[in-house]
Amino acid sequence: MSRHTTQRLAFALLTLAAIVTTAPxxxxxxxxxxxxxxxVSWEFLTTMPRDGMRAGGIWPAIVGTGLLTxxxxxxxxxxxxxxxxYLAEYAKxxxxxxxxxxxxxxxxxxxxxxxxxxxxxxFVLFLNFGTSILAGCLTLAIMTLPVIISTAEExxxxxxxxxxxxxISLGGTKWQTIRRVVLPQALPGILTGVxxxxxxxxxxxxxxxxxxxxxxLPQLPGSAMDATMALPYHLFVISTQIPGMPIQxxxxxxxxxxxxxxxxxxxxxVIRARARAQRQW
Amino acid sequence: MAPSLATLKPPARASRNWGELIVEALxxxxxxxxxxxxxxxxxxxxxxxLPTFAEVGLGDLFAVRWYPIEDYFGxxxxxxxxxxxxxxxxxxxxxxxxxxxxxxxxxxxxxxxEILKPLIEVLGGLPSVVLGFMGMLALAPLVRETLNTPxxxxxxxxxxxxxxxxxxxxxxxxxxxxxxxPRSYRDAALALGATPWQTIWRVTVPAARTGVLTAGMxxxxxxxxxxxxxxxxxxxxxxxxxxxxxxxxxxxTMTATIAAEMGEVANGSTHYHVLFTVGLALFxxxxxxxxxxxxxxxxxxxRSERLLS
Lengths: 281, 309
Prior knowledge:
The structure holds 2 protein chains of 2 kinds.
Chain A: H1 3-36, H2 42-46, E1 49-50, E2 55-56, H3 59-90, H4 95-109, H5 112-126, H6 133-157, H7 161-169, H8 174-203, H9 206-209, H10 231-240, H11 247-278
Antiparallel strand pairs in A: 1-2
Chain B: H1 18-49, H2 51-55, H3 58-61, E1 66-67, E2 72-73, H4 76-107, H5 110-125, H6 128-147, H7 155-179, H8 183-191, H9 196-207, H10 209-225, H11 228-233, H12 254-261, H13 270-308
Antiparallel strand pairs in B: 1-2
């Protein structure tokens, strides 16, 4: 076999691999969209479930996922950005800094169900928050933290050093330099990371399984100390726990969850692309 | 040296008021928080998991029967289940992920790259419960008919989906590693008359091997910790896998066991403690995998710094 034939064969195989990797994504998203769309109506989106969830809408699950995502952001975003500022702008290369980096890498790798156990042990039982939105948000926030820290740090480090030198030489303090010069420049990158982190939190089931999620609630949660329904857990429940569940409702719920998560993904991609086009350095 | 304020000293006359000092203290505390959280997670897993060893003998833990209702807490079937599903996922995802990374980094024209990369990112963003849902409805029947097994909910079905979940991590880390190979390596090979494929296979991929290895490890780490997908498609039968044939039978993984049973146990019971012990084991596995992967990355960085200086 000549080396050019070998090359043609190898390239064909590599192309095939790329197709095998990406085609199912299009198929899955397309199939859920096509099958789920007929089930999605205004009523489906805005009413409570009825008849043991076999009819009616998924309004409480949508509200729950919105609340959990927002609450997670409230905790994880300030903490994550502050940690990123510390790592990018203050930390010197010491053993302690290296320990922080190893801790972040490990937080990123801990299985989501282990976060669920941790949330159960610390927030639900030890701190006595009970199965609640608060416990769920705190658990999800710690899980989301490494994503936000690493992307935000990367965005901060991408700001050229000359910007900092100029600000300091004009008499700015460290914090003024960060607040007025570095942060605004890094904002699009940070925002991308924040959205990608929250996207993960919105789609997760295992961490809220024993910390926040309720099988079914007849009314919306009244406070942060109440349990809540959530889209991912609801999809799990109606596709595995309830016999005789109409398939349309299952696909409709999957579609709403996908739209929720993928629109966040889309927003992040748009912000990143626009920032890249407008960047002056 | 990466851009940073750490090396810049503001002039002494620059006004530093109390507000600023407080903000900086908060930032410092936030920086340290990651260590605190890892420590807290370990602490609470130990706190709830360690009583296991007082309540169940070691011999009973490393037994082959998991039947908590009758106080059989043999962990081997769960460990075996996790291993076989992860092994299957690795065998599927490694070649596929590496080939895709090579295609995206070395062969695909720019426009195709711009389509493929976001698409793979979408796969990474799909909630695991959605993948499990599609796995149950679409993949499991397919597996049952193709392999002629009594049920489609097998370890193999889980492996396929886990491979899909590991792919985005694998592809992007491997692609970064390939991108980091200096242009001059490729130019030299091509100038010596090698075909583009020979250049890729003999020069670029070997030069990126540490990064590719890291990609594999992180992908495996992702696979062993996945919960919802495996719980929905692997059939959840706690039996010890005996050989590769078990790949086509239902299994139950460590993660799925925690997720399925934790909701129903009484707090503080032996069953509850054992589930935390399983979580502790998962924590330690992921800790080791990530520590090893980051050690490889750190070593790599040092070597490249040496070469440049």
